[in-house]
Structure formats: structure tokens, C-alpha cells
Design a protein that fits this description.
By secondary structure, the chain is mostly beta strands. It folds into three domains: 145 residues, Cupredoxins -  blue copper proteins (Immunoglobulin-like); 129 residues, Cupredoxins -  blue copper proteins (Immunoglobulin-like, Sandwich), CATH 2.60.40; 127 residues, Immunoglobulin-like (Sandwich). The chain is built from three helices and 31 strands. Strands 12-11-10-14-19-16-17 form a seven-stranded mixed sheet, with no helix packed on it. Strands 1, 2, 3, 5 and 7 form a five-stranded mixed sheet that branches. It has a five-stranded mixed sheet with strand order 23-22-25-29-27. β20 and β21 form a beta hairpin. The longest helix is centred in the middle third of the chain and has 6 residues. It is globular.
Amino acid sequence: MLDRRRLLKLGGITAGSAVGGAVLLSTAHNPAAASGPAGHGGHTGYVPVAVTGAVPPASPFTRRMPVPRELTPKRTRSGVDTYRIPIQPADVELLAGHPTRVRTYGGRFTGPTIRARTGRPVRVTFTNQLDVASNVHLHGGHVPQDSDGNPMVVMAPGESRTYDYPNRQQGATLWYHDHAHGLESENVYFGLHGCYIVEDDAERGLGLPTGPYDVPIMLRDAQLDQNGGLVFPSTPSSRTTIMANGVVTPYFPVAARKYRFRLVNAAVERIFRLTLGGTELTQIASDGGLLPAPVRRSEIVLGSAERTEVVIDFSGHPIGTQLVLYDVSGPVLRFDVTHHAPDPSRVPALLRPLPALPAATVERDVSMKFDLSGSYPVGVVNGQAYDPNRVDFRITRGTTEIWRIRNDDGAIGVPHTFHMHLEQFRVLDRNGGPPTPDDAGRKDTVFVGPGETVRVQVTFTDYLGKYVFHCHYLDHSALGMMAQMEIVE
């Protein structure tokens, strides 16, 4: 368990916008500040940090957005696709001409994409070549306990660990990232994130854009120093540099045809509010896969760790057109229509129906907030900081439950995002009213603004064991805003 009495005092909590996401933290790395999981060698403490020197100017749209490399299995045996991925340091240019040391899956700042198939298992062996502990959580994955990336089960430097992903779930855009408790925010901030795409046969038959026209885009923010290096810790409001697939404000050439873009908010603590310069986006999926039908959207809001899939049809734009994807903070990415290409794809009027919700037999309350009564803030769930030796909820396998998730930090204006491991859920209502369009479909992460209450319904199937649920502002979960459930017979 983290020794929270040895945490250094946070720099402060300031009021922030429920959608803007500029809220916490001022922090600095101090390996001696607290003990962490076995193999940690200390974890991040939290104190104010001053950054000097001007950030080098970055001209937008001067570098092309890369598409993350898609892995080929090292081998396939008995129907299992096997991969090996090193967790390793690398020098990358977040700004052109300014190399900086980051932490990566496979040597690239946005990790490689794994494209899996429903019903076909995947086995991935990760080897930790960093000088800090790490582990891997498949976010949105329906996986057995020992492959979930428990925050206290880590790989010390030099160790390896194999994770088994059965892929017993429908097609969806998932992602994998570090989850070593006390280091999760730091490790993800420095680059430990990558896409994991599950495809199924029913989805393939719909005719949606595929191949080079199916593009994952990991969005995140950062604060850069005068040498183009990542500044951590930093306050969310100072993380003003926006990256798409690891490049600052890039451009991406497209053909005059339809594209499927899988958007992942990989920022440790940010809300993106996305628009396409007045052009409508067609949303086809959320965290857990396809919606029942496509939805025309003028704006999409993504909390930390949420995903959405959109189709953009560039066929109505002449060659030479430039369309900019904006956040409220400024431009994120520019699409340049450069050529024509055949387009046999379509967006059908019906995608995938949602199953009827079974009757719930249990209701629970989940409160997320900061305890400010001591000399330093502590993140708590239902009044208690995370303790891996404590089980907060015992849940019978096969049952359906309703959880009332409250953000009790309304007085200080701090938003949270709630994430449940193991299962997808459905949002029933928000503040007693209907869900928002951003709450639609199968979800595993949901934004909960200051003072808000969101009710979700979930059925617990298949796997037994202990899993966590927590705020996915990783700065918050690192300070204890996490709890544990145990699925039992």
C-alpha cells in the first residue's frame, strides 16, 4: 500500500471548467517521496514545480501525422496470436529538431497497434527495459484477473510479463497503457499508450471504411520545455501543446472519399471538445463499439480515456481543400484533400442494436472527491483512499447492478472521469435527465462534471477475481481515487 503520510504536499487545486478540463495538479518527481508496489523503487511525490525558458515555437501543420505501426504476430499457434513488445526508452522529436527522451511501447511515442479478432485470443509478452516499474492495462478489455494489469502487480526493471486477451467481446476500439499505481500518470504522460482494435465478422459485413482508410488517432496534451522535452509534473492548464499520434498539430493527407477515424483521448487529465470547422462528423461508435445507428454530430466531447469513432466523407470537397479539427484550445489536426480514390465503403442506416437491459438487483453509490482535511489532498472513493488489501464491493457473477456515480468535488470545481475495469456499462441518466450524446452506446469510461451524478447499469459476466474502478484523471488515481471490487460465485 502507498504510504500516503510520506506524500509531499500538492501545489494546489484550482477551479476549472467542466468541459475545458484545466483543473489539477502541480507536481514534481521525487523518488524518495513514497514507497510504491514491489519493484517501484519509489514513486512520484507531489510538490510545486517551476519551469523556466521559453517553449520553442511550433508552426502548426508542418509535420505529417503518422499512422501507428500495426503489429504482425510473432507466431500463431493453436489459434493464439502471440506478440512481444519491449517497454523501452527512446529519443523522439515531439518538435522537429528537438529530440527528447520518452518511455515507449516498441520504441515509438504512440505504441504499435494490435488488431485482434473477436473469438481469437491474443497473447502479449511485455519486457520492461525502463528504469522504473511498469505494467499494462488493456483499457476496455474483458479479460481474466491475472491479465487485467492490476495496479499493484508490476514489472520491475528487467522483468517480463505475459498478458492473455481472450477477445470475447464485440468489435471496439480499446487501448493499452501503463497502470502501475503511483506511476500511472507519469508513465502514460511520457508515452506508454497504444491502440488495440477488436474486429468482428458482423462489423466487417457493414461496408465501413477499412484498410488505409481506417485510422486510429491518439489525442493528448503536454507541456514542453525550452528544449522540446516533456515537462512532468505540470499543471493541466500548462499542458497547452496538443499532439495527434505523437506529433504536434500535424496535417494528414486524405483522398476525396470516406475515412473511419478512431479517436482516443490518451491525455492523463483533459477533456477534448472537438469540431471540424463547421463540417458535420458522423459518429458510429463509442468506447464499447458500434452505436445502433450513425449520429450526425457538430461537436464531440471526449473525457480522458474515452473513445469515439467517426466517419468523415471528404468526397464533397475539391482537391486542395483543408479541413481543421479543432479543440476549444485551438487546432488539433488538419486534413488535406490531396487526391481521388475509389470508395466502395458506406455508412449503413443501422449499425448494431443494443441488447435489452436486464433487471438490476443491486444498486450502489460511488462518490469521487478529494479529501482536503489534511496537510495534502488525498483522492478518495466513498471516503476512502485506495487500499489494495481492501475489497470495497463484492459482486455476484451473473448479476446486474446500477451504480450512482457522484462527483462530490462541486465546491472546488474539479471534474473526474469514471472508469470500470472488466465490464462495459450503459449510461441510464445524467443528473436525473437523459444521457448526453457523448454517453451513448456501450461505455467503460464516463465524464462526471463537478457536482454531477451519472447512473450506469452493468452486468457482470464470465470472470471472477479482483478488479479496480477509479477516476481516469490519472493524476487523481495516483493520489488514491481508486477502489476495488471482487467478482465472486
